[in-house]
Amino acid sequence: MIDVQDIHKSFGDAHILKGISTTFEQGKTNLIIGQSGSGKTVFLKCLLGLFSPEQGNIVYDGKKYAELSDDQKRDLRQEMGMVFQGSALFDSMTVEGNVMFPLEMFTKQSTSEMKDRVDAVLKRVNLIDAHHKFPSEISGGMQKRVAIARAIVMNPKYLFCDEPNSGLDPKTAILIDDLIKEITEEYNITTVINTHDMNSVMQIGEKIIFLKDGLLEWEGTKNEIFKTDNEAVTNFVYSSDLFKKVRQMYIQEQN
Amino acid sequence: MNYLASVGSYAIMIREVFKKPTKWRIMKSLIYKEIDELIFSSLGIIIFISFFIGAVVAIQTALNLTNPLIPRNLIGFATRQSVILEFAPTFVSIIMAGKVGSYITSSIGTMRVTEQIDALEVMGVNSLNYLVFPKIIAMLFYPFAIAISMYVGIFGGWMAGVFGGFLTSADFITGLQTDFVPFHIAYAFVKTLIFAFVIATIPSFHGFYMKGGALEVGKASTTSFVWTSVVIIILNYILTQLLLG
After folding, report:
1. Domain count of the fold of chain A
2. A68 and A122 share a domain?
3. How far apart are CA B42 and CA B121, in angstroms?
């Protein structure tokens, strides 16, 4: 579980996060949504420890990040997996090398043990024959799956995903969403996803927080998002005609 | 003020490079890879340029020796002094600032743009140690490249002098051996080692702290070449004054 307590973050005169408090629960897919410039990426980078908030606390299962020593922070980071928007795979390494990288860096496993673990996670993300290919030789969807495999290879307690569906076709996007949800439940991890994709919101949003101008404007579940009267949320989520119709149908069904 | 802030950031970067070392098993393979990419892959251009510059120095000296009282073996002497004292350590380092420096800036800059550096940081890896330390160690082999440059430069001078009909081979070799000061070799290698550190770290700094996209990677490479060259030229002056002045 990640408990976020009143965090503030500024860059120069720009006050990006203006006091966000929320809780991300274990074993659930937690989604952060909001318009571009609402502070989603800065918020996610604060959760990852890449940015230090000026005020407030982020507590990971009882451990306050700001109070940890450098070594403890490094240990905590090894419990985090991250799937970046552009996958962020290492160009100079094969798929196998990318997934094996955290194991090589932080474990004392033998090469055969590492290879077995890499085989297992690549199989888990449905990538069987790509071990010796380089990231430039595989599709965007496959790159995302390699990034997920790399993120879970160390059995993380926390999984963060920044726009995991961006640049993917709708079918692959659904596959990636399902995979993240399955992994979250299977490994019982705390998953936080930063997304613009409303299909993801409807499909896997067990908890959704909506950021607006650096503030937490709304939070709830995917069912609650249908019923909410919050104008900012409805304007954002139901901006397309398709989603407006889906919402009307849902409300009619409920009545 | 910005320049001062950059100098401070550079100093902090250097300190971070030597903190929290990466596992030796991984670091060893990174160092081998960097030696291959920074040193071995540069030997071709170093040999090519050294040969022709040495040849041109010999020809220019020969063409300017109009006084019959000045011995022809001065061509060998002048080639040796030019190549060992300045051409090989300084001129080649500026070429390397372009070739190796822009490679370092663009490769690290691309990793920054594509969030690969963020990925390292999130995993708990000291990205500066992982990326920059192997380059610094690989550049410790740079004096070997400069030794080859010295040899090839003098050989180019000999070829141009002898086959151009400016002097005999014996004259050239006599010139090479005239007033030889072994400390000049030490001076050249001290300069080379310091320039090697500059070539490894300034481009890394520009790549690591760059912001923006692909266009900015190109701009960062150009900026890093300019600053690496400027620092080499200034250090060359200071080191020459300190070691030979």
Report:
1. 2
2. no
3. 31
> B120 Cβ partners below 8 Å, 6+ apart?
B127, B130, B131
User: Is A71 in the same domain as A167?
Assistant: yes
| pTM (2 d.p.) | 0.88
Q: Which pLDDT tens digit goes with each residue over A72-82?
A: 888 888 899 99
* Domain assignment present for A149: yes
Spatial separation of the C-alpha atoms in residues B17 and A174, rounded to whole Å: 42
pLDDT surpasses 70 at B1: no
Structure tokens at B206: 């520009």
The distance of A105 to chain B (nearest Cα, Å) reads: 7
pLDDT band at A254 (very low <50, low <70, confident <90, very high): confident
Paired tokens of B176: 């090479």
Of A155, A171, A194, the last residue of a domain is: A155
Distance separating alpha carbons of residues A34 and A58, to the nearest angstrom:
20
Residue A95 has pLDDT above 70, yes or no: yes
Whether the complex's predicted ipTM is more than 0.90 is answered with: no
Residue from the list A48, A75, A90 with its beta carbon closest to the beta carbon of B122: A48
Strand partners, A219: A209
Distance CA B136, CA A117 (A): 33
- A24 has which bridge partners? A2
Nearest-CB residue to A50 (from B22, B114, B118): B118
Same structural domain for residues A65 and A167?
yes
Domain span holding position A95: 90-155
